[in-house]
Amino acid sequence: MHSDFAPEHVAAAEKAGLVIIGEATRDPYLYISHNGTTLIDSPIDQLKPLWKDGLVKYY
């Protein structure tokens, strides 16, 4: 698993109360699942405009 913590520091991070919820990769994809159900499975280039411009119509 690749996280924001070096493998030798994962146990210390968890002991400090942090919860590792995923891993960072170089893939330009966002994949999120919960209890075996896929919640998001999309390329970042499709998600970025939604994040960046999603509230424009409200301003």
What does this structure look like?
The protein is built from 2 helices and 2 strands. Helix content is 27%, strand content 22%. It has a domain at 25-59. A two-stranded antiparallel ribbon has the order 1-2. A hairpin with a 2-residue loop joins strand 1 (29-34) and strand 2 (37-43). It is of the alpha+beta class. The protein has helices spanning 10-15, 44-53; strands spanning 29-34, 37-43.
Write the layout of secondary structure elements.
Elements lengths: L9 H6 L13 E6 L2 E7 H10 L6
Antiparallel strand pairs: 1-2
Brief overview:
This protein is α+β, with helices and mostly antiparallel strands. It is built from 2 helices and 2 strands.
